[in-house]
Specification:
The chain has a single domain (about 25-195), classed as Jelly Rolls (Sandwich), CATH 2.60.120. It is about 5% helix and about 45% strand. The protein is built from one helix and twelve strands; from the N terminus they run αββββββββββββ. The chain has an eight-stranded antiparallel beta sheet, with no helix packed on it. The protein has a four-stranded antiparallel beta sheet with strand order 2-11-4-7, with no helix packed on it. A hairpin with a 4-residue loop joins β5 (about 85-90) and β6 (about 95-105). About 30% of the residues are buried.
Amino acid sequence: MWWAQLLNTISGLLGVVTPPIGDYESIQTHVVGAGGQASVTFTSIPSTYKHLQIRGIWKDNRPTFTYDNVVIQYNGDTSTTTYAAHQAEGSGSGTPAAAAFTSSSGTGIAYPQTIPNNSVASTFGAFVIDVLDYANTNKYKTNLVLSGFDTNGAGRVSVASGLWMNTNAITSITLAGFNGSWSQYSHFALYGSRG
């Protein structure tokens, strides 16, 4: 786009650094410390972006080898009537398995699954969550999640979508474990995109 290039050229001449439209700008970062943490919340999210993206590496602190779900809540909303989600995943070692899930009655958007603490040492899962049109007050909010992890040959990959049935602009996002907490060194970063 010629006008975006012109804007960047003028900004450069004036000594102002302006990220290209469509680039991601860092907003907030959380790193879980010793002892773990029950949840992570991004607060005071500015309304100056078009979309948001959350990137992270995570591990659940539960001692047994069972997978936990992530619960995403917007603006502190814990109502059981405002969230819905769909998820498809593949998993296994040897004979892979596929599954699909839906949810429409939780206190947040429940997905994707996390890697348990007693799995392979120093191994974490990874995810990317796109929150679309988060500041638009004329529509419900949707998101898309890509995630996965490996446990020395057995693991899971998933794609999911979620819906928050509220037209308010999103100003805070909480990520919590459905049954557990985040282990030390789990890392969550929030970005904004203007394009």
